């Protein structure tokens, strides 16, 4: 029978290197060698459990000490999805950086939720459909709701209204496809999609008049080259949240940033909901 797999992240030689004194004692063997590799013994399992507890305590201590830091000078890491950074909030980040030149900002554009507990980021800005899906240890500051719609280029829409025979395709992100909520509306598309691997290429493709695509309203409505497809509806993606963790949210840098950005998000609420256009 094959040996059970080692727990994720377990490296028996590394464990031995950190605890050589245990290996020389009766009952202190941390792993046993098997033809297929190695696996932890009962003693090794206990060492792993204690090591995990020590790591968690270390992170807790770090966040508590960090939380007492009331200095404005220092590093502030902010993580958010790329469209939010490039199409909405970068001007606000620039304003904040000019207002607080002693704060070193690092913007991490990623769709993944960074581990705030391990200080991978100090603030996460995320679109969340259900608040209950977020870890309980995160402190959330609720922002506006975010909607999306179906868009095509204004020139292509005008050509379609004039009866141009050119086929209109769906432009989609390869890994996502056409969302269930999206419809053609009054415009009929072919069954042959045009696929891209990232959001920026998707936007460029729709500007080129290849067809229609789904975009957040804060992207589509703010682009003077794009228009909503007639007969299509808006769709709610979720609610924007400013997320922080534990003691870190008490630092002056984090408090200044979250207060500043929450005011910006409140101003953007009509745009995020598809009710307005971006202010000049």
Question: Which short descriptors sum up this protein?
Answer:
280 residues; alpha/beta; D-Maltodextrin-Binding Protein, domain 2; 3 domains; two-stranded antiparallel ribbon; 11 strands; globular
Q: Could you characterize what this model shows?
A:
The protein has three domains: 12-67, no CATH class; 74-144 and 237-267, Periplasmic binding protein-like II (D-Maltodextrin-Binding Protein, domain 2, 3-Layer(aba) Sandwich), CATH 3.40.190.10; 147-236, D-Maltodextrin-Binding Protein, domain 2 (3-Layer(aba) Sandwich). Helices cover 34% and strands 26% of the residues. It contains nine helices and eleven strands. The chain has helices at 12-18, 20-23, 42-67, 82-99, 154-161, 199-207, 217-220, 252-267, 269-272, and strands at residues 31-34, 37-40, 74-80, 103-109, 123-128, 138-153, 169-173, 194-196, 211-216, 226-228, 235-245. The protein is globular, with a radius of gyration of 25 Å.
What is the fold's blueprint, element by element?
Blueprint: H1 12-18, H2 20-23, E1 31-34, E2 37-40, H3 42-67, E3 74-80, H4 82-99, E4 103-109, E5 123-128, E6 138-153, H5 154-161, E7 169-173, E8 194-196, H6 199-207, E9 211-216, H7 217-220, E10 226-228, E11 235-245, H8 252-267, H9 269-272
Parallel strand pairs: 3-4, 3-5, 7-8, 7-9
Antiparallel strand pairs: 1-2, 5-11, 6-9, 6-10, 6-11
């Amino acid at each position: 029978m094959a040996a059970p797999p080692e727990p994720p992240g377990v490296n028996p030689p590394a464990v031995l290197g950190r605890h050589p004194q245990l290996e020389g004692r009766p009952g202190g063997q941390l792993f046993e060698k098997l033809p297929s590799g190695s696996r932890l013994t009962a003693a090794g399992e206990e060492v792993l459990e204690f090591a995990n507890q020590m790591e968690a305590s270390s992170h807790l201590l770090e966040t508590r000490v960090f939380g007492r830091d009331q200095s404005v000078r220092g590093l502030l890491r902010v993580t958010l999805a790329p469209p939010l950074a490039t199409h909405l909030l970068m001007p606000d980040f620039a304003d904040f950086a000019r207002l607080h030149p002693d704060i070193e900002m690092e913007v991490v554009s990623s769709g993944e939720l960074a581990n705030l507990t391990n200080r991978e980021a100090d603030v996460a800005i995320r679109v969340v459909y259900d608040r209950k899906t977020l870890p309980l240890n995160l402190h959330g500051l609720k922002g506006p709701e975010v909607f999306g719609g179906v868009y095509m280029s204004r020139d292509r829409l005008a050509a379609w209204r004039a009866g141009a025979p050119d086929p209109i395709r769906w432009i989609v992100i390869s890994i996502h496809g056409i969302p269930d909520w999206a419809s053609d509306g009054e415009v009929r598309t072919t069954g042959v999609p045009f696929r891209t691997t990232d959001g920026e290429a998707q936007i460029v493709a729709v500007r080129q008049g290849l067809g229609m695509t789904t975009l957040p309203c804060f992207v589509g409505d703010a682009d003077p080259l794009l228009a909503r497809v007639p007969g299509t509806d808006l769709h709610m993606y979720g609610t924007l949240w400013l997320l922080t963790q534990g003691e870190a949210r008490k630092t002056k840098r984090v408090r200044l940033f979250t207060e500043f950005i929450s005011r910006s998000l409140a101003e953007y609420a009509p745009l995020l909901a598809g009710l307005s256009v971006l202010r000049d």
